[in-house]
Amino acid sequence: MSATAKELDWEATRSRWHPNIVRLYDYWRSIHPAGGGLPGRQHLDPMHIPELLPSVWLLDVQREPMFRLRYRLVGTRIEEVRGQKLTGTWLDDTSPEIVNFEAYYRRYRAVVDNPQPNWRRGRSQMQHLRDIEELENILLPLAANGQTVDVLLCKTIYYDRFGRTLL
Prior knowledge:
A hairpin with a 5-residue loop joins strand 1 and strand 2 (about 70-75). About 25% of the residues lie in helices and about 20% in strands. It has 5 helices and 5 strands.
């Protein structure tokens, strides 16, 4: 996969990423098909990233009749922090505080519509059981057909008020 100017700008933030975010991103890059296009869920082998799995989550993308995201698989540490079982549920059903928060969905839609990774570090926009001051996460597009994003591969790192990682 060749890097675009936008992607190179985006990768400039890499020096600020948590090492486990870097590891997942590098793995995602390594599983791109030789013929080009995006990797799909079928290219993802959890056995290659076992240490990352507790804070990895997969979202299925529904485009019609409206844009929605369903938790396909959620790592144990994510469910621990969120205080509920998330696998198989809709994102907006488990997080009512974001239902009418268009800016929250804009980020996900951008990764789906323009298949580029998206990294962010900042305050959480969801409710958590634990005292989360800040989080860092990455959204990585997956496409079964190499073109149309149908799954998002995600990883989250949580930080307390002293900047220490919680997970």
